[in-house]
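step=encode ok
step=design start
structure_in=
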């Protein structure tokens, strides 16, 4: 069911993209609206699942959870306040106005919405909190936060926070971003463990991990595309069988084995994930000695379609006549 839903969303998005041409102000407004929606989704996960249960999942947001616990100051306001000096730092080192505009909307909407949710939603909901289970709150907090961040990133926004010093350090010294994030987030999670206890710190780490997966999902989607490389000594029947039964185009190169010094043909094609088993069966039938590699492609753009190029109803043998 999830696969069918994803395919439907993909097809609808492709239709809209091909029929709606956005330029200038209309595109800017749409992107800014998407960034605002993403910030609201993140704020919902942060204020409803993370702050009330002291789940500090790294970053400025995690530091805000710790300070909120001791002072009672609004977590959204703390998020804005702690980002201000970082925004000034980023302004002078990461692109000035362009950088500033990419962060301001998402940070402002997140901060205001997080405090609004914390203030009004508990009185509007019949059941608050939604669950007292810490594991569920860690999972759903990370999920909503990560989905929102992914939407913000996808439409050109940014959330500021520890990304700013990490990017500056990388630009000045070449120090890897991943290691900088690890130290920043790890330090905040360790601090949370010292303050709240190590069980909550581990749940915060889980929330951080789930948030990263959710962000990647929004940015890249589910990989439905597979790349196929076949090295064959007798490629002709194999090509025909793939064309007839899978309806996919094929590219080919003449190659030579590094050890055997024999001449081979290398075939390359792109298929959907659902066609992998059919292709394996075809290769096993027509050239059992062929060398087959199945690769995972994140995206395929251009003329690739999840629909077969040829509307075939059943599998046919290569070389058979069409009735």
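sequence_out=
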């Amino acid at each position: 069911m999830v696969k069918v839903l994803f395919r439907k969303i993909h097809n609808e998005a492709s239709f809209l993209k091909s029929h709606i041409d956005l330029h200038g102000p209309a595109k800017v407004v749409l992107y800014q609206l998407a960034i605002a929606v993403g910030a609201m989704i993140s704020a919902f996960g942060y204020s409803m699942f993370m702050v009330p249960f002291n789940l500090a999942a790294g970053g400025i947001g995690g530091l805000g959870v710790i300070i909120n616990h001791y002072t009672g100051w609004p977590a959204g306001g703390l998020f804005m306040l702690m980002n201000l000096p970082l925004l000034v730092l980023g302004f002078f080192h990461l692109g000035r106005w362009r950088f500033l505009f990419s962060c301001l909307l998402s940070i402002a909407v997140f901060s205001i919405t997080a405090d609004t949710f914390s203030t009004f939603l508990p009185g509007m909901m019949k059941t608050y909190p939604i669950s007292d289970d810490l594991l569920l709150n860690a999972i759903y907090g990370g999920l909503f936060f990560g989905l929102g961040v992914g939407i913000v990133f996808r439409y050109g926004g940014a959330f500021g926070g520890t990304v700013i010093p990490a990017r500056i350090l990388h630009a000045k010294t070449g120090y890897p971003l991943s290691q900088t994030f690890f130290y920043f987030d790890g330090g905040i999670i360790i601090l949370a463990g010292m303050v709240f206890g190590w069980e909550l710190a581990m749940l915060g780490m889980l929330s951080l991990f789930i948030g990263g997966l959710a962000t990647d999902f929004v940015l890249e989607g589910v990989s439905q595309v597979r790349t196929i490389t076949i090295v064959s000594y007798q490629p002709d029947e194999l090509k025909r069988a793939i064309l007839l039964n899978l309806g996919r185009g094929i590219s080919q190169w003449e190659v030579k084995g590094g050890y055997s010094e024999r001449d081979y043909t290398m075939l390359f094609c792109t298929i959907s994930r659902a066609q992998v088993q059919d292709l394996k069966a075809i290769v096993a039938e027509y050239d059992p000695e062929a060398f087959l590699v199945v690769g995972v492609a994140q995206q395929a753009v251009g003329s690739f379609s999840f629909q077969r190029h040829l509307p075939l109803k059943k599998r046919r043998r290569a070389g058979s006549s069409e009735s």
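step=design ok
step=annotate ok -> The longest helix spans residues 96-124.
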